[in-house]
Write a structure and sequence with these properties.
Blueprint lengths: L7 E5 L4 H11 L6 E5 L5 E5 L7 E5 L6 H17 L4 E6 L18 H12 L3 E5 L14 E4 L2 H11 L4 E5 L5 H11 L2 E10 L4 E8 L6 E9 L3 H12 L4 E9 L5 H7 L4 E5 L13 E4 L2 H13 L6 H4 L5 E2 L1
Parallel strand pairs: 1-4, 4-5, 5-6, 6-7, 8-9, 8-11, 11-12, 12-13, 13-14
Antiparallel strand pairs: 2-3, 9-10, 14-15
Helix pairs in contact: 1-8, 2-3, 4-5
């Protein structure tokens, strides 16, 4: 199937250059030439180093630390490509920050996930490619096409190869039940759910109850992201207290902010399996953390978007994912 646009070009901001380079290697395409840096007054400067007229341009940028700077870089790169007459601009956002602020759950609070969507659209993006949104309804915040991939298949395959003897998949909260249920089906495992209540806005939660049984089983905690690791480590202790023989944790996005590393280090979790949607600096690399690459999944999806093929089949076409430590 021939592409609807001219040459495929891939550009990267500064949030996750290693992932961008892996994607380019998978596609066998050199990265697009681009300069992105702040002036002394913190204003961000962007300059494209090659012609992109009528090209199919993809911009890879995770909303990772520093989050506000990462978002501004993406917006300015999109505006630069639009003004350089790119044929189509796709924002590739492996990690969509502000995904938790997807609704008004308190009086007088914003819906920042919608605000970010509006900003990306106004900047000039024609479509969005992202991975495991915190809430599926965020797709509807955009008035342009959104392709949401999931890395759960990659993570599930990793656990399939571990051949756990008696696994049970555990959702750390009720809102994550569907994701955990799908993961359990991949492992042919039973499902348990931890009911909890979040306390205010201070990243603290109170665990209430375990629904299901983990006694004598290897518990695999599944979530979309690990932020401060409070919920996941509390859930791990609940599993141990209820008779689990081992506890593993699996998530797409390793935010790992604040006390997360210290909490994981002393927790009963045997292994934490995440992906490289967010770069993991050396100071956050514990021996118990395994990082899987999603570059083949994103690379395959980018090629399929470029040629007009089905993105939903991208996972089946990817090569075997390798683990990184």
């Amino acid at each position: 199937m021939s592409g609807l646009y001219d040459e495929l070009t891939i550009f990267s901001g500064n949030s996750n250059p290693d992932l961008s380079n892996e994607i380019c290697s998978y596609i066998d395409l050199p990265p697009g030439r681009i300069e992105v840096f702040p002036f002394s007054n913190e204003n961000i400067f962007v300059r494209i180093g090659e012609s992109v007229r009528e090209n199919d341009a993809f911009v890879i940028q995770s909303f990772s630390t520093p989050v506000s700077e990462s978002i501004m870089e993406l917006l300015i790169i999109i505006d630069t490509l639009k003004r350089a007459s790119a044929g189509r601009i796709t924002a590739v956002i492996p990690y969509y920050g502000y995904g938790r602020t997807d609704k008004k759950d308190q009086p007088r609070v914003p819906i920042t996930a919608r605000l970010i969507a509006d900003m990306i659209t106004v900047a000039g993006a024609n479509r969005v490619l992202t991975v495991d949104l915190h809430a599926g309804q965020i797709q509807g915040f955009f008035n342009i096409p959104v392709d949401e991939l999931t890395a759960m298949g990659i993570v599930a395959r990793y656990f399939q190869e571990k051949r756990l003897s008696n696994p049970v998949v555990v959702s750390p909260d009720l809102g994550n039940t569907k994701r955990a249920r799908n993961f359990a089906e991949e492992l042919d495992a039973t499902l348990a759910i931890i009911e909890k209540r979040r306390i205010g806005n201070a990243d603290k939660s109170e665990t209430l109850n375990l629904i299901g049984s983990v006694a004598g089983c290897q518990a695999v905690l599944v979530d979309d992201e690990i932020d401060t690791a409070g919920s996941i480590t509390q859930a791990a202790q609940v599993c141990i207290d209820n008779g689990a023989t081992e506890v593993y944790a699996a998530a797409t996005h390793a935010v790992l902010s604040g006390p997360a590393i210290q909490r994981l280090a002393v927790s009963p979790i045997r292994e934490v399996v995440v992906t490289n949607t967010i770069p993991l600096p050396p100071e956050k690399r514990l021996d118990k953390i395994t990082v899987l690459s999603i570059a083949p999944l994103l690379g395959e999806s980018i090629q399929r978007i470029h040629t007009g093929a089905s993105v939903s089949l991208a996972y089946r076409s990817t090569q075997h994912t390798r683990g990184l430590r």
